[in-house]
Each structure stands twice: as C-alpha cells, then as structure tokens.
Design goal:
Distance between the termini: 88 Å
Structural class: mainly alpha
Number of helices: 7
Low-confidence stretches: none
Number of strands: 3
Largest sheet: 3 strands, antiparallel
Mean pLDDT: 76
Strand content: 5-15%
Length: 189
C-alpha cells in the first residue's frame, strides 16, 4: 500500500494515500472502526445491488423511467435510453429535453473543472526542474486531462449544434426576402 500511496501514476493513488494516512493515524488501536460501520456497509451493499440492476437494464436497452422526478416536479417521466454498438465502438443516448439539458450542464461543468486542473498542474509543473520526473509526470497528467476535457467539449458542442439546428429549422421562414418586403411596402404607398 505504501508503494501505491507514493506512486503518482497509480490510478487510485489518492485513495491509497488516504487509507495509508488513516492506518498510520490509527496506530496500534484495534478497536471498532466506528459505531455505524456495519450500517454504512449495508447501505453500500444495497446501493451496489441497485446499481447492478440498473446497469443490467441499461445493457439490455430498457428505458429507464424516473417516477420520482414526475412526482416531485409534475413533469413528464424522465426518459434515458442507452444502446452500445460493440462493432462500431459507439454508444447512442436518447434523452428527453430536460434530462439532456441537465446532462449537458454536468458535462460542461466537468469540462471546466478538467480545464482548470490542467492549468493548475501545468502551473505547478513549471516550478519543477526541467527534465525531472515530477515535471514529466505533471505534463503527462495535463495531457490526459486535456484529452478528457476536449472529449467533453466535443460532446457539448455536438449537443449545442443539434439544439441550434432544431431551433433554426423550427423558426418560421419569411415569405420573401427583406428587400422584396421593402419593395412591396413601396408599391402599396
């Protein structure tokens, strides 16, 4: 665990470091972890079971309908459908308007956080010696975060393009050009 807690490239490094700090802080105390530890474990197990069921429903292509959202807001049911095509390595999502707006807000917020993290990592990396492991590591982290942020921004842009295209198509088209409308006004006078 000590190796994982100190390795910057280990994917679960923050969690390993936190667990290591906890173990060191506990020392030789082998008493109960906390009063509610068993209850919390049961809640986690129930949540895992619920997520497993939802994952299976999503894999089979069933629509997930949220009755709670309808009861709380009076809105129509939330529609979320996902289909994965392993041959093309694509995933198709079908969402109702409100859910899509919320999802795109979350995507944009997450992209902003990733971009801020890139700036923070790059700024810190510049303080490290040229060619050092730490600096190369920060550059690798920044490159990874930048790729993720770019993908998120691409999803956001595609959504905005689809929404704007639909808005333009639904606008009523003028019967004639503005110049001809002006000519007609002149004729009427």
């Amino acid at each position: 665990m000590r190796i994982h807690a100190r390795t910057g490239t280990y994917p679960d490094q923050p969690q390993a470091a936190r667990l290591m700090e906890y173990c060191v802080g506990r020392g030789a105390d082998f008493g109960p972890v906390s009063e509610n530890f068993g209850r919390v474990c049961d809640q986690i197990d129930r949540a895992d079971a619920m997520l497993g069921g939802l994952r299976e429903r999503a894999r089979s292509g069933n629509v997930v309908l949220s009755q709670e959202a309808e009861q709380e807001t009076g809105d129509l049911q939330t529609v979320a459908l996902a289909r994965r095509d392993p041959q093309n390595q694509t995933v198709t999502l079908i969402l109702d308007d409100a859910t899509a707006n919320v999802a795109m807000y979350a995507v944009a917020a997450h992209a902003s956080e990733r971009e801020a993290h890139v700036r923070e990592v790059e700024r810190y990396g510049e303080t490290l010696p040229e060619g050092s492991y730490g600096r190369r590591n920060r550059q690798a982290i920044a490159a990874h975060e930048r790729r993720v942020a770019t993908r998120l921004r691409t999803v956001e842009k595609a959504y905005r393009t689809a929404v704007e295209r639909d808005a333009v198509v639904s606008l009523p088209q003028p019967a004639c050009s503005p110049e001809r409308a002006h000519d007609r006004e002149m004729e009427l006078e």
